[in-house]
Design a protein that fits this description.
Organism: Wocania arenilitoris
Protein name: DUF4870 domain-containing protein
Distance between the termini: 23 Å
Structural class: mainly alpha
Shape: elongated
Subcellular location: Membrane
Pfam families: MamF_MmsF
Strand content: under 5%
Radius of gyration: 22 Å
Oligomer: single chain
Keywords: Membrane, Transmembrane, Transmembrane helix
Order of helices and strands: HHHH
Number of helices: 4
Number of strands: 0
C-alpha cells in the first residue's frame, strides 16, 4: 500500500527535473539525489526514480544527436559565401544571406524538431508527475532504459 509520502517523493523526483532552469544539470542532480536517498524505502519510488533519470539521459542523447546534425547545416550556409583562396582581410568582408539554401531548410526543420521535442519533454514530465501523485507507474515514451 502506497502512502502519501511515497507518492510525494515520486512526484518530486519528476518535478525536480525542472531545476535545470535554475541550476546547470539540475535535471540530473535533483532526481538522482532524491532517488538515491529514497530508493530503498519503496519499489514505487525506485521505479519512478529510474524512469525520470532514464528519460533525462535519453533526452540528452537525442539533443546531442540533433545538435550534431543541425549545427553543421547553419555553419555551411554562413561560410558558403566566403572565398578562402582570395581572402584580402576583413575590409571587403560581408555575409550575403540571399536566397535560402536547402541546407538552411534542413537545419531549420531539425531545429523545429528540437523545439517540438522540448515542448513534449515538458508535457511528459508533467504527466509523469501527475501519475506519480495518483500512485500510478508511468513509463516515458522513447526512453532508453540505462538503469534497470
Amino acid at each position: 500500500m502506497l502512502d502519501n509520502h511515497q507518492k510525494n517523493i515520486a512526484t518530486f523526483i519528476h518535478l525536480s527535473t525542472f531545476s535545470r532552469f535554475l541550476i546547470p544539470f539540475g535535471n540530473f542532480i535533483g532526481p538522482i539525489i532524491l532517488w538515491v536517498t529514497n530508493k530503498d524505502k519503496s519499489e514505487f519510488i525506485d521505479t519512478h526514480g529510474k524512469q525520470a533519470i532514464n528519460f533525462q539521459i535519453s533526452i540528452l542523447l537525442y539533443a546531442i544527436i540533433l545538435g550534431t546534425l543541425t549545427i553543421p547545416f547553419f555553419i555551411f550556409k554562413i561560410f558558403s559565401g566566403l572565398d578562402f583562396i582570395d581572402f584580402n582581410g576583413f575590409h571587403d568582408f560581408h555575409i550575403n544571406i540571399g536566397e535560402p539554401s536547402p541546407l538552411l531548410y534542413i537545419g531549420g526543420t531539425l531545429g523545429a524538431f528540437a523545439i517540438i521535442g522540448f515542448i513534449l519533454e515538458l508535457v511528459f514530465i508533467v504527466i509523469a508527475s501527475l501519475k506519480a501523485r495518483d500512485g500510478e507507474i508511468y513509463h516515458y515514451p522513447l526512453t532508453i532504459n540505462f538503469l534497470k
